[in-house]
Amino acid sequence: AEVEVRLHPANHPSNESLPCQVARAGVVIGTAGTALVRAVLDGVPTTCLDPRHIARPVTSHVIGDVIMPDRTEWLNKLAYAQWSHAEIKSGELWEHLNDHNTIARYRSCY
After folding, report:
1. What HEC string does the chain produce?
2. Long-range contacts of 77-80 (CB under 8 A, 24+ apart)
């Protein structure tokens, strides 16, 4: 099987779009970034090596294991976590993060 490596596009621009490369993949393996989310959304088996990544609940965690779990609950949670431009501009997002002490919890991870 052919292996392709896609480095972060900020440092290594690619002539091929992420969706095209993911669509061609048999499996996507990664530690972070949007490629893992893109792969899960596109129904490509995905292995996530970062225990904190948002896609972790619907991916395998060991290279070589291929799983295709039901993504319904994960997709619902992902959609719920999105914020519109209007909500960001109005300050609603910032208020939510402060009210739920999310920023302090996030900073405590590092």
Report:
1. CCCCCCCCCCCCCCCCCHHHHHHHCCCEEECCCHHHHHHHHCCCCEEECCCCCCCHHHCECCCCCCCCCCCHHHHHHHHHCCCCHHHHHHCHHHHHHHHCCHHHHHHCCC
2. 78/37, 78/54
Q: Which residue has the tokens 């993504």?
A: 71
Cα–Cα distance for residue pair 36/57, rounded to 1 Å = 12
Find the angle CA(38)-CA(43)-CA(46) to the nearest 5 degrees: 70
Q: pTM of the prediction?
A: 0.73
Q: Are 60 and 47 in contact (CB under 8 A)?
A: yes
Q: What is the largest CA-CA distance in the chain?
A: 50
Tokens at 98, concatenated: 């402060």
C-alpha span between 94 and 110 (Å, rounded):
20
Tens digit of pLDDT for each residue in 39-83?
Answer: 999 999 999 999 999 999 999 999 999 999 999 999 988 888 888
